[in-house]
Amino acid sequence: MTGSEPTRVLVLDDHEIVRSGLSDLLQADGEFDVVATTGTVTEALPLLRGLRPDIAVIDVQLPDGSGIDLVRQLKEDLSEIATVVLTSFDDDALLIDALEAGAEAFMVKEIRSFDLTKTLRRIAAGQPIYSDDERVKVIAQARIRLSARDGTADLSPQELRIFELIGDGLTNRQIGEKLFIAEKTVKNYITSLFSKLGVNRRAEAAAMAARRAERSRRTPD
After folding, report:
1. What structural domains does the chain harbor?
2. What is the CA radius of gyration of the chain?
3. Which of 3, 85, 93, 165 has its CA 20 to 30 A from that of 55?
């Protein structure tokens, strides 16, 4: 991605108007050559393998798969292709997933065209958007914001442990045995943590805990 040749870009988005808009913007800039646009993972994979663009701009939600899963696959199979996740959702969970998958940048579609092309130029020049330390910090900060929003930041250490065990599928009796507390005490903790999390059913708390655990498992050591 150096020299006088334009930076070759593939755009993957399921909305045709977004694909056209991005393509027109980048082509008009003069420093980019949009070599392909497509709306599905199925169509994108052979194009990526055959064309080997410098940068792939990838939407998160696609009709036949996840853009973030595609980023992860590209980092394993075609690591020379830089990836930029572009989404409509300013969502910390998506930010975490994208950066942990290896995306060079995560941007919301409301971004100004100047900032978008500036970011792509930096990537094309081999200048990382995040250093390794910055990437870790950005992910950590996003986790803090996410925890604050999902209520887990307000849980006491014991409530958090019980919340995690609910996510593991343990019953109240099993939780009590594991933590050496009475089953009635477990129920009292659960009543409190349900209130803090804003949930009414155990299944809701279990699903929330499972999502949180999955994000934690993806955290780099």
Report:
1. 7-144 (3.40.50.2300), 151-217 (1.10.10.10)
2. 21
3. 93
